[in-house]
Structures are given as structure tokens and as C-alpha cells.
Amino acid sequence: MRKIRTYKDVTHDTGSGLLEQVVDQQHRLADRLALVRSVVAVASGKGGVGKSAITANLAAALAGRGLAVGAVDADLNGPSLARMLGVSGARLADRASGVEPAESPSGVRVMSMEFLQQEEDAPLRWREPEMGRFIWQSTLETGVLREFLGDVEWGELDVLLVDVPPGTDKIARLLELVPELDQMLMVTTPSETSRFVVSKSVRMAREAAVGTVALVANMVGHTCPECGHVSELFMGDGVKRLEEESGVPVWAQIPFDPRFGAATDSGTPLVITDPDAPSCHAILALADRVEEQIGIRGRDAVEEVGS
Ligand SMILES: Nc1ncnc2c1ncn2[C@@H]1O[C@H](COP(=O)(O)OP(=O)(O)OP(=O)(O)O)[C@@H](O)[C@H]1O
Ligand SMILES: [Mg+2]
Predict the structure, then answer these.
(1) Is 3.40.50.300 the CATH number for 36-306?
(2) Where is pLDDT greater, at 303 or 159?
(3) Neighbours of 104 (CB within 10 A)
(4) What ligand is nearest to the CA atom of residue 73?
């Protein structure tokens, strides 16, 4: 069988500077993240469960408490975080120390592929060599994510949230770049299909060096605004089962709330305009847990860096 060489097989100077480039980028990433108290991924494995909406509201909630918050949209093919945080179409300034992230009206520093695309409906296309596109694609995607994390002038942050696209492979890629992730919030819905998919991601995160893994249950019941009746959107008890089988705690249960979706989709996370909505109570409870956890792990890390 023909063997494809990876950069790990390149043990001598090929004249391409490939090894040096990879090592150099990894150093830049480590230096940049040394100023970040805590990296928190919002992931799932499953698509459409509310990862981006939760990231946007959580980021705005934490920034509203005076924390220095950054948010990376790791979804390169379907970016939505900038839009949800109200900074869609922002232009980025390029400084010697790195690209300046956009700042949302809620005070969150944001980086997204959306800023690099000229037209709203332009699908992402890579300019990779014609031959073997499938080999290049994941290399290029991981390279861009590394740049989003390492070449953006984040400055000192209390928390850098990462909105991870669906697919356990995307979680694996992020863990390669940031092996000692502080927290991973796994978003799921009560459906059996969601439980089935998310269980794989939970296992991946638990087998890696992630500090804390927690579940965030989204779209848990809907309260009729007219009569107050609570109806379940999903029949399954997927969240409870996932919690019991994995031993990973549930940090928040967010109800389905059309206003939460509509406000977030229009660029104003509901947590800013109506923190008293039940969906926002759940987000604020989640922010409490995240902040509590940063307090423990983050301060130690910053002290180590400073010492
Ligand atoms: N609790 C909720 N109540 C009402 N709408 C919600 C809720 N959570 C998310 N939404 C809405 O559902 C839609 C899908 O959510 P979102 O885009 O955040 O999912 P996602 O997991 O990031 O999807 P993808 O896997 O494609 O990245 C969005 O319009 C969002 O605003
Ligand atoms: Mg998303």
C-alpha cells in the first residue's frame, strides 16, 4: 500500500521549513493562551442543538459581569456566532502583534470566519491543490483554527469561549490544539438521538485532559405564554440517561423559548435585554458554574504563568 507522509515523518530539513512552521505556530499559540485564564469549549458533536446561541448568551452574560471575554467561532463552514453577538460584517484591524478581534455591543471580543468573507451567501472554499482535496481540507481547517486562537490579539482574557461545530472530529481537532482545555460544555437536547451522538463526545472529552466536562440540556420543555402549560418537545429522557451513564453533571436546563431564539438570531442575546426570562435564568445559572470553575483553575494557571 502507498504510504502518505505526514509532517511527523519529515525528520530532516526538506527546504520547505514545514517542521519549523508547525513548531513556531504552536509556540505562538501557547504564548497567546498563556494570557487567557480559561478556555471553555461549547461543543456537542450533534448539530443544531443550540451551541452557538448558548455561546453567544453565555459570553454576553459573563462580559456583563465585568469579565474579559473572548469568543471564537470555530465553525468555519457555517459561522453564526458573530451574527448572534451583533458584530456581523465587522472589519478587522491587522496589527503587528496580531489581528484585532471585533468587539460586540455586549463587550465580547469575537473572531469568526464571517469577517473574512465578502459576501453573505458565499460558501467557504479552500484554495488547496486540485489533487487530494480531502487530505488538505482538514489540515487547512485546523490551520485556520490555530490562527484564530494564536494569531488574534486577544490580550488578557478571563475566559475564551470556543463555539465548536458539530462532529466529534471537530472536538478532536480542538483538543489537539488546546489539549488542556479548562472546561467543555456539552450541549444536548432530551432526544434519544442527541443522547446517542453526544455520548461519544462526552467520552472523547473525558478521555482527554479536559479540566471539567459538564452537560447543558437545551430545549427542555416549552411554557405556553398564553396559558402557562409546559409541554415537552422531546419524549425521551436522554439528558437523565446521559448524566447517569457518563457521570457528567448537568449544569443547566434551558427551556425552549422562541424569544431566546429570535433575539439571539437578530444579534441581541436575550440575556442582555430580558435577563428575567426563564431561558436566561438558566443561562445565568450556567454562567455562575463557569465562573466558579474559572475561579478555581484559572487563578492557579495565571499564578504559574506569572511566577
Ligand atoms: N432554547 C432555545 N429556545 C429557542 N430557540 C433556540 C434555543 N436554543 C437555540 N435556539 C435556536 O435554534 C437555532 C439553532 O441553534 P444554534 O444555531 O445555536 O445551534 P447549533 O448547535 O450551534 O447548530 P450547528 O450545529 O449548526 O452549529 C437557532 O436559531 C437558535 O437561535
Ligand atoms: Mg452553531
Answers:
(1) yes
(2) 159
(3) 27
(4) 2
